[in-house]
Every structure is written in structure tokens, then in C-alpha cells.
Specification:
This protein is an alpha/beta fold.
């Protein structure tokens, strides 16, 4: 039974109605996947999209863990016999992990602290007397506590100070006040470590910088933390310590007597030794978490755009991994990405075998009936592209430059070795380049998203959160596009709603043994493919050659009978209905509204019937770089060039202008109007025009602008 209070808190946290939240949580707890729930349970969720459901899922997990922590904390305090009804109520009503830990702190089992050592010496009652701030002549009182373990009055008073300092540091209102002050006013100061200026040049912007922490850009925080981790920068949190001590003193100190003055000194010790280090770490960790969140969101947005890159579709591809000294590795692929042959050509320096390379490429194009050519965008890309475009073929063949980032990761992976055990990494890399042109999504799912190269400080952020976020993006993209169950790789099938590595492999094994699937119902014959997996996954699996046309659509099998009834009621067959807008628009959907099928589902069904199995990705457009620019030496300020967006960060946009080095459009140069993030106006793989502002030839840095271009 789900905690009702938890659901109330969750509803407020995500800003979605209580009813929608409860129904969505129930679906998730029943094992529903986010793609399935968002697509096929709209009536239940009230039309929540994937992002909203993901937010509910994440927040529900966080609150559930917090609830478990609350129960643990209550148990520990109860064992000590200190769980009062008032404290128990405070813990139950607390839905902040920070506040919960503040409540728990006085009861948390202590390590060997100075205060604990003083208690062992019997000095806690002395601390209580002084803390009451009613006694004078505290040295006289302290004299009574001398013993074998307490040799002097000074030692007794020091022990009392240690205990009082700990009490002050454990007061929730004190910690909350200091925390709020830090969050509002803390400044993050960065300085280069003495003697490491030359070694730390890449951190030159942070050699002597000060940023208000709450306003500091995420990429700056992550850069400074990385510099500190590498031992090149020294970071410091700066606040007005005197002002904070004064605030705590007003909270804690009462009167002006001797014991009050003693407590005032204990406040200073408590702040400097216990409170400040703790809150400083806490606030810096929070800033890191917020920076991580922004960086992960940036990476996820970039990855989504990359995975949704336009596919060329089923074409025969000649793919080239360009190179100079070692030559260009060439492979030919069939319409499904199967390897037909591989070879090497040397059209560029140092061999300059233009004639031999031309003859070989033309022969391969003719022999394998090639439809398009893919060229990796690495070393020698421009030279190889120019060579290929200079050739004459019997039919028109377009040459496409393909982003090969991560191809080397795939070529050395276990997946690639299993697929091509007798081929070396250069052949596997070329195959990956060609397949990226055919279908970027199907190929990129084989690579760890972190290796694709569209992130921002991805190795510095919380790796578990990054993995979860990127996996969600990949799953979302795969299910949005749909998967041909008869051609999909295990890696692609793994991301289908309701499947996973084992079921994906079982599908492959069944396909290899029995041949292509002819109907969706045949999936139920796959070992361990039960009704639950069928419910979650079947609508995302396409069978283009199926007898029932709905098996190649996003219409869920649970609604097949409804579609057949709609067609029959209007005198059509399902086959006649599909793709015919006039017939589809003649259907009165209101006739088919039921308790479990509302207008959202019916609207989705007719939309799918109009274009069954439609691909949401855009079509691939031709593109070419400036022929006069082949290296950084060819650049001049004032040039306007064609470019492709290769990465988007919070501080700017990286653009490929056809040379080895990418240029940077700083966020201030992306648009004429104010933008909070470059992703507000540009997307990955977008074709843009840029102005060359300046070129630093020594550091190989190119400054670009998109303003008024």
C-alpha cells in the first residue's frame, strides 16, 4: 500500500494532480515502462508525457528512500529511549533529507569526538550548568569536577566548551540559519596552486576568480572542481564569518554574565570547528549536484538530437574511414548494413594513388550497386571527400560526411568482435560509419553514450545519474521510432519497452532458428516471452511484411478488434482504411469512446492509420563545406562559412566547419537576443552559417559568431 502522505508530497513536488500521480505510480509499480505508459495509458495518466512520468518515477524513488531513512532514524532514536511524540511527529512530517539529518544529528551514534571524550570524563553536567547561563564564578564550579581524569580547571572548562560547541552545532535552527546564509551569500574563490601555473594553462580562466556560488555557471563549477582534483587549483568558500557568528550568538547567548561570555566563546569554536566545515562541504556538494544536473540535461538533450539524426534509409552504402599514411579503409554494405566486402585505397598523400583509388571505387560502386557514399569526418576527411566527389559514376551518387565520434570505441568492443571476429578494428570502424548513414539510431545504441562525444564534463558528474538519464533518452528514442523485429540487433532490441538483454537475445535466437516473424502474436512463442512482456513491447516492434498491416504500425494489439470494428462499421477492410485520409476522417470517433478507451487513444489510432509505422525523424539533407577551407591556416577573420553543430554546452556551441578543429560560438554570439542556453536556438547536427571572428593559430582555437549571419 502506497503511503498517502507520500503521494500528496509527490504531487506538490512534481506539480501534477494527486489523481494523476497516484494512477501513474500504480502503473509503474505494476511494472509498466515509461514509453508504454505515456503512449498507451493516456486515459489513466491524464495524458502525461514521458518527461512528466520520468519525473514522477524519479521523485517517487527519492521519497521512498527518504521514507525508509525516516523509519531507520526513528528506530535508532527509539532504541535510545529518546523518541518523544513531538520528535516522532517532526520526523514523520519531514520530507527533506537535509532537515531529516539535522533532526537526527543529536542522536546519531558519535565517533570519538572531543565532546564525547569530555562526557566520558563526567563533564556533561558542568556543561549543562554553564549552558543555562545563570551561574557565575564558573572556575569555582569547575573545580568540583577535578578527578583522576580531569587534572585542572582549564581542562574541565575546555571539556565543557567542547560539549557546548557540539550542542550548538546540532541545533536545527542554527544549522538552518547558517545553511541559508551560505546558500545566499557564499562566494567560490579559485586560485592557481603555487608553482603550477604553466601546467595549469587550460584553467587560466580560474587562476584568480571569484563567483557568487548560487549564480556560478555549471560548467565553471565543474571546471574548477576538476582543476582542484588534478591538484592545479585551490578552491575556497568565502563568507562573512563574523556576521554568521554574530547571528548564532544572538540565537544562543542570553545575558552578559560570566557563563554567557563562556557560551559566546563556545559559539565561535562551534562555528569554526564544527558548523562551518560541515555546511561548507554540504553547500559545495549541493552546487556540484546542481551543476551535474545541468550538465546531464545538456548531455541528454544532445544525445536525443544525435539519436534522432535523419537516416538515409535502406540504401547500399560504400563507407570510407579516411586516412593519410595508412590509407582509406573502404567497405561496402547492403541495405541492412551487412558487410559485402572491404578494401584499402590510397588517394591522398603520401602515396597519392589517385588512378588506382578511382578505379577501385568505381568498380566497387558498380559491382555492389552502391546508392550512396559515407565518409568519416576524421583525419583526411576533406581530402577524401573531394576525391570521391571528383569521380564520375553511371548514376548519381551523393557523398555524405558522417560524424564518426565513438566509432573507434565500437570497433574495439565485444559487440564488434562478436559480429566481425575475423576483421580488424579498421574494417569494423568503417562499417560503423556506413551504418550511421543508414540508421544513426540503430548503430549508436551499440556504443556507450558517454563515448559519443556530445557531453559537457561527462566524466566529472555523478556517473549513476548520468547513466540513468542517458539510458532513459536512448529508450525513449528507440521506442519513439519503433523497431523492425526481423532486422534489429540485440543492442537495439534491448532498449525496447518491456524487453532487456535476455529477451532480446531470445528473439534473435528464435529468429535465427525459425526465420522472420510473420505476426506479432508469434512473439509469444519466444522462450520466456510472456503476456506481460507482450503487453509492454509488442506495439513498439514492427513487422513490415506482416499479413495484418496493423503489425507494422504503432497501434497496440489490444486495440486491433476496435480498429476492425471501426472499419467494418463503415464498410471497409482494415487494409482499405490504412493510408486513406478520406475514409479515416469519415469515422465518428465519439461512437467508440469507452471507459478504458478515450479520445486520446482514438486520436492516436487514426493518426497512426494515416501513416502506419511512420518515422518521426526528419529526412537527410545534402550539405557541403567551403571548398576553399581545408585547414586552420586557410581561415581569416570575416569569413562566412557553412557548418554543422557537433556539440552544445552551456557556454557555447561547437561547430564543424570542415577542418580538423571545431570552432566555438560563445553563448553570447549565438543569438541577437538574450538566451539562457544555446539549446534554446540550435540543435545538434543543425546546418548553420557562421562568421569567423578570430583565429588563435598557436592554440588551435577558432572563435565564431552566428549573429546577423
Amino acid at each position: 500500500m502506497i503511503n498517502k502522505t507520500l503521494l500528496d508530497v509527490l504531487s506538490k513536488m512534481v506539480g501534477i494532480s494527486r489523481q494523476q500521480v497516484e494512477r501513474t505510480v500504480n502503473l509503474l509499480e505494476e511494472g509498466g515502462t515509461i514509453p508504454f505508459i505515456s503512449r498507451y495509458r493516456k486515459e489513466c495518466t491524464g495524458g502525461l508525457d514521458e518527461v512528466q512520468i520520468q519525473k514522477i518515477s524519479e521523485s517517487f524513488s527519492e521519497l521512498t528512500e527518504l521514507q525508509k531513512r525516516k523509519e531507520y532514524v526513528q528506530g535508532v532514536i527509539a532504541e535510545q529511549g529518546k523518541l518523544t511524540p513531538e520528535l516522532g511527529s517532526k520526523i514523520q512530517d519531514c520530507w527533506s533529507s537535509v532537515e531529516l539529518e539535522d533532526l537526527y544529528l543529536p542522536y546519531k551514534p558519535k565517533r570519538k569526538t572531543r565532546a564525547e571524550a569530555a562526557r566520558v570524563k563526567g563533564l556533561e553536567s558542568l556543561a549543562k550548568i554553564i549552558m543555562s547561563q545563570k551561574a557565575n564564578d564558573i572556575e569555582c564550579i569547575a573545580d568540583r569536577y577535578l578527578s583522576d581524569s580531569v587534572a585542572s580547571i582549564d581542562e574541565a572548562l575546555q571539556g565543557a566548551n567542547d560539549i557546548i560547541a557540539e550542542w550548538i552545532s546540532e541545533k536545527t535552527f542554527v544549522r538552518s540559519s547558517v545553511r541559508n546564509y551560505f546558500e545566499r551569500n557564499a562566494v567560490l574563490r579559485s586560485k592557481v596552486v603555487k608553482g603550477k601555473k604553466d601546467e595549469a594553462q587550460k584553467y587560466a580562466n580560474y587562476f584568480d576568480s571569484s563567483d557568487v556560488l548560487r549564480k556560478c555557471a555549471s560548467h565553471r563549477i565543474l571546471a574548477m572542481l576538476r582543476g582542484e582534483k588534478e591538484g592545479l587549483l585551490k578552491l575556497q568558500i568565502v563568507v562573512d564569518d563574523a556576521e554568521i557568528i554574530d547571528k548564532i550568538t544572538k540565537f544562543v547567548v542570553k545575558g552578559n554574565g560570566e557563563s554567557s561570555n563562556f557560551v559566546a566563546e563556545a559559539v565561535k569554536d562551534s562555528y569554526k570547528r564544527l558548523i562551518r566545515p560541515s555546511i561548507e562541504t554540504e553547500v559545495l556538494n549541493l552546487a556540484k549536484q546542481n551543476a551535474d544536473k545541468v550538465a546531464i540535461e545538456t548531455f541528454a538533450n544532445n544525445l536525443r538530437q544525435l539519436l534522432f539524426a535523419p537516416p538515409l534509409g535502406r540504401k547500399r552504402i560504400l563507407a570510407v574511414d579516411p586516412g593519410f599514411r595508412t590509407g582509406c579503409k573502404v567497405v561496402c554494405l547492403d541495405e541492412l548494413g551487412g558487410l559485402l566486402c572491404d578494401d584499402v585505397i590510397y588517394p591522398t598523400m603520401p602515396k597519392n594513388d589517385y588512378v588506382g583509388a578511382s578505379s577501385k571505387v568505381c568498380s566497387l560502386v558498380k559491382k555492389y550497386n552502391i546508392d550512396a557514399i559515407a565518409v568519416g569526418n576524421g583525419t583526411a576527411s576533406r581530402e577524401t571527400e573531394a576525391f570521391l566527389k571528383s569521380l564520375s559514376f553511371e548514376k548519381e551518387i551523393n557523398v555524405y560526411v558522417v560524424n564518426e565520434s565513438g566509432a573507434s570505441i565500437y570497433s574495439a568492443s565485444e559487440i564488434a568482435r562478436e559480429e566481425f571476429p575475423d576483421k580488424d578494428v579498421t574494417v569494423r570502424g568503417s562499417v560503423s560509419i556506413g551504418r550511421r548513414l543508414l540508421d544513426p539510431l540503430a548503430e549508436l545504441v551499440k556504443i556507450d553514450p558517454k563515448s559519443i562525444g556530445v557531453g559537457q564534463y561527462q566524466h566529472d558528474v555523478d556517473q549513476n545519474k548520468l547513466k540513468d538519464s542517458l539510458s532513459f533518452v536512448v529508450e525513449s528514442c528507440v521506442n519513439s521510432v519503433g523497431v523492425n523485429v526481423n532486422t534489429a540487433s540485440k543492442e537495439l532490441l534491448t532498449y525496447v519497452s518491456g524487453l532487456g538483454p535476455q529477451l532480446a537475445q531470445n528473439i534473435i535466437n528464435y529468429r535465427n532458428e525459425h526465420g522472420a516473424f510473420r505476426t506479432r502474436n508469434e512473439l509469444l512463442d519466444v522462450p520466456r516471452f510472456g503476456a506481460k512482456a507482450f503487453l509492454q513491447s509488442s506495439a513498439f516492434l514492427r513487422i513490415p511484411e506482416a499479413k495484418n498491416p496493423l503489425d507494422n504500425s504503432a497501434v497496440h494489439p489490444e486495440q486491433y478488434k476496435l480498429v476492425e470494428r471501426m472499419a467494418k462499421d463503415y464498410g471497409y477492410t482494415v487494409q482499405e482504411l490504412i493510408g486513406d485520409k478520406v475514409k479515416i476522417n469519415s469515422i465518428d470517433l465519439s461512437r467508440y469512446v469507452k471507459c478504458d478507451v478515450g479520445m486520446p487513444t482514438l486520436t492516436d489510432i487514426v493518426t497512426e492509420l494515416e501513416k502506419p509505422g511512420r518515422d518521426p525523424r526528419e529526412k537527410l539533407n545534402d550539405f557541403s563545406f567551403d571548398d576553399n577551407v581545408r585547414s586552420i591556416e586557410d581561415l581569416k577573420a570575416g569569413m562566412v562559412l557553412n557548418g554543422i553543430v557537433t556539440n552544445i554546452t552551456q557556454f557555447g556551441v561547437f561547430v564543424d566547419i570542415g577542418i580538423h578543429e571545431n570552432g566555438l560560438v560563445h553563448v553570447s554570439e549565438v543569438s541577437d537576443r538574450y538566451i539562457s542556453s544555446p539549446s534554446d536556438v540550435v540543435s545538434l547536427n543543425q546546418q548553420v552559417k557562421v562568421l569567423v571572428k578570430s583565429v588563435d593559430f598557436d592554440r588551435k582555437r577558432i572563435s565564431l559568431s552566428m549573429k546577423n549571419v
